[in-house]
Amino acid sequence: MRAAYGVETVRTAERELMARLPEGALMQRAAAGLAAVCAGLLGRVYGSRVVLLVGSGDNGGDALYAGARLARRGAGVAAVLLDAGRAHRGGLAALRAAGGSVAGDATAALARADLVVDGITGIGGRGGLRDAAVPLARAARESGAVVVAVDLPSGTEADSGEVRGECVRADVTVTFGTYKPGLLVDPAREYAGAVRLIELGLDLGAVEADVEALQHADVAALLPAPGAGSDKYRRGVVGVVAGSKRYPGAAVLAVAGALRGGAGAVRYVGHGADAVIARFPEALVHAGPPSEAGRVQAWVIGPGLGEDAGGALGDVLASDVPVLVDADGLRPLEPEMVRGRDAPTLLTPHAGEAAALLGVSREEVEAGRLVAVRELAALYGATVLLKGSTTLVAPAGGTGAGFAARPVRVNPTGTPWLATAGSGDVLSGLAGALLAAGLGAMDAGSAAAYLHGLAGRLAAGGAPVGAMDVADALPGAWRGVVGRGRTAPGTPSGTV
Ligand SMILES: NC(=O)C1=CN([C@@H]2O[C@H](COP(=O)(O)OP(=O)(O)OC[C@H]3O[C@@H](n4cnc5c(N)ncnc54)[C@H](O)[C@@H]3O)[C@@H](O)[C@H]2O)[C@@H](O)CC1
Ligand SMILES: [K+]
């Protein structure tokens, strides 16, 4: 599990550690790690040209001390100071002592740079870059040099992943002590490039993370494996209420996701029965209503249902098994239809659907995904999976002591190729199968998103894919996770 902690938690842990270490030791650890990453990127340090963008806080201090280390190894290092009077004193003295200089002309220095170190702001930055820093962020991007962000790309919000206005776009971000939520969650994640963590020795063991990302080994441990005594009910029967005369394909894709997701059987209810049976003769079909379709261990309702989702939705939500509500099923959904349920409910909106549920604009959701997913989980008292380039899963929330904030999970395996019609229908079926197998809503949602992302990558292989290709790639993704998870717990490829 990869954990990310917010600014307040990081500051507390840093204070505790600093109290036990000689003064400045922590910043030296950070600077040493930063310099090592920069040296690796430069290849040959001697003779290279490095420009430091230096704000007036400790983030600038890290950049200056790292610059001093590179200067000692023969790099030409020039610092651009945002506020000459407030630059980190010790760091500036160290840079000068090592032969580095302060740049008189920032534009000229940036134009010749091989590598730019962004030390404008770190976890102390607030509210988007200030005016004086904006042209520097832009010039860094346009310089063609490799851009390394210190702790986080300046201008991005560490806690929320929000980006307000111009910000630095990094090729690599060297972060200290722990990941920050903004490094894992879009839109900020996009600006971070590849993220490298430098351990500082912070003690965060007893603290709940704000955001966490499952890795192969975590997912492998969650996925059910049928035993000798398994029958279809033990593996989990999924009820799928999806598709309509107008959208029969959604029914096929949701059923495909459920079957490839390991369901013992799928009971399909709706107008797409002919299409479902034609493709999956093993599916059990029923004209409805869902409550009369027979025993299931979880329901999936919504993909391609069209306008008349209301009746079936009430029927399914009245059941005592887990329910996943997606797409058209979300439209008639009111908080009170979900809040009173004893069994888990998992809502899986994309940004547009989440916006409609919250009564805000789609742009607002896209800009503040972490806030939006938590708000929805609180409003509906349900687990919420917000689809997107970084899919988020928030635990069922609410107010009061029973709902201490638990981590939101961010999926690290997504690929832009998944943004294709019907891909969400496959995800619904897959998550439904995991719910039916007995996983909790958080685990089912996040493991499904993980497998779905991997399947998307496998199916795409760098080229466009259709939703059925993604469903067909699920067994391969599953095998990859289980195989690798058992033998070598590791991270998926990608920048996170
Ligand atoms: N506290 C510690 O023990 C350690 C801190 N470290 C570094 O220290 C950083 C935090 O340092 P600080 O708390 O000094 O804060 P920062 O250096 O992140 O930012 C604060 C400074 O930026 C200015 N600023 C704030 N918002 C701005 C904006 N929107 N545009 C432009 N300037 C803005 C402020 O006036 C202030 O001078 C971390 O991100 C990390 O890089 C590391 O050295 C590791 C150890
Ligand atoms: K920075």
UniProtKB/TrEMBL annotation:
In this chain the YjeF N-terminal domain maps to 10-208
The EC designation for this entry is 4.2.1.136, 5.1.99.6
Q: Which Gene3D superfamilies match?
A: 3.40.1190.20, YjeF N-terminal domain
- Residues bound to AMP are K387, G388, S389, T390, T391, G424
Under the subunit heading, UniProt states: Homotetramer.
Q: Which InterPro entries match?
A: Carbohydrate_kinase_pred_CS, CARKD, Nnr, Ribokinase-like, YjeF_N_dom, YjeF_N_dom_sf
* Domain (YjeF C-terminal) ranges: 215-481
Q: Which gene encodes it?
A: nnrD
User: From what organism does this protein derive?
Assistant: Streptomyces agglomeratus
Function summary? Catalyzes the dehydration of the S-form of NAD(P)HX at the expense of ADP, which is converted to AMP. Together with NAD(P)HX epimerase, which catalyzes the epimerization of the S- and R-forms, the enzyme allows the repair of both epimers of NAD(P)HX, a damaged form of NAD(P)H that is a result of enzymatic or heat-dependent hydration. Catalyzes the epimerization of the S- and R-forms of NAD(P)HX, a damaged form of NAD(P)H that is a result of enzymatic or heat-dependent hydration. This is a prerequisite for the S-specific NAD(P)H-hydrate dehydratase to allow the repair of both epimers of NAD(P)HX.
The record lists the lineage as: Bacteria, Bacillati, Actinomycetota, Actinomycetes, Kitasatosporales
Q: Name one Pfam family in it.
A: Carb_kinase
Question: For binding (6S)-NADPHX, which residues are annotated in this chain's numbering?
Answer: 58-62, 122-128, 151, 250, 304, 350, 425
Q: What is this protein called?
A: Bifunctional NAD(P)H-hydrate repair enzyme
Q: Which residues bind K(+)?
A: N59, D118, S154
What's an example Gene Ontology biological process for this entry? nicotinamide nucleotide metabolic process
Required cofactor names:
K(+); Mg(2+)
Q: Which UniProt keywords apply?
A: ATP-binding, Isomerase, Lyase, Metal-binding, Multifunctional enzyme, NAD, NADP, Nucleotide-binding, Potassium
Whether Ribosomal protein counts among this entry's keywords is no
Q: What does the UniProt cofactor note say? A: Binds 1 potassium ion per subunit.
The lineage's top-level taxon is Bacteria
The catalysed reaction is: (6S)-NADHX + ADP = AMP + phosphate + NADH + H(+); (6R)-NADPHX = (6S)-NADPHX; (6R)-NADHX = (6S)-NADHX; (6S)-NADPHX + ADP = AMP + phosphate + NADPH + H(+)
* Molecular function as annotated in GO: ADP-dependent NAD(P)H-hydrate dehydratase activity; ATP binding; metal ion binding; NAD(P)HX epimerase activity
- Classification via PROSITE patterns: YJEF_C_1 (PS01049), YJEF_C_3 (PS51383), YJEF_N (PS51385)
Give the record's family classification.
Answer: In the C-terminal section; belongs to the NnrD/CARKD family.
